[in-house]
Write the structure tokens for this entry.
Amino acid sequence: MSLRLGDEAPNFTADTTDGKIDFHEWKAGSWAVFFSHPADFTPVCTTELGRTAALKDAFAERNAKIIALSVDSIDDHRGWAPDIGEVTGSELNFPIIADPDRTVSELYDMIHPGEGDTSTVRSVFVIDPDNKIKMMLTYPKSTGRNFDEILRVIDSLQLTAGYEVSTPVDWNKGERVIASPAMSTEDARERFANVEEVKPYLRYVDDPSA
Ligand code: BEZ
């Protein structure tokens, strides 16, 4: 069965570069960014994992832990890890799951047969502290992801979980947001600062968390 937003992120146990983990225990109380890459010792994946390692503090500031997966073995992950530091300047600082029997990849539908072989495509799941899936994206093997975008989505998810607002196109943390369409402009004026009614359904307001 395919996973949908709001579903519980399936639990699993797996071998990782940091030892065996139970996924839900590993992420307990945190947000998690769980992402797959096609293969070790490949160019785009090397750049992606280095960039993610460089952003570790930014994820930690958001109470988000990072974990990667490919269908390669632990020995391959450990053999490849030094290349990530050498090439990108950022040493691997989060676990990579080894999934040679594809159990976890299949649980999360990370293998897309139309994409050439039985390795994982570039999937990302953002999972909240209650283990609910809050965001999913899937990129083809040939296209590296933008991990600043993952941070931006986490900022939006965390803000919109606490306030009746949405975030507009290309929004970044600290910028103005949009009052819920379910709320009247009068209510919005009582609850938020600096309300600008562009249309009755489009009301910009200051970030209420600021
Ligand atoms: C890469 O990481 O460069 C890559 C991996 C698998 C297929 C295509 C590109």
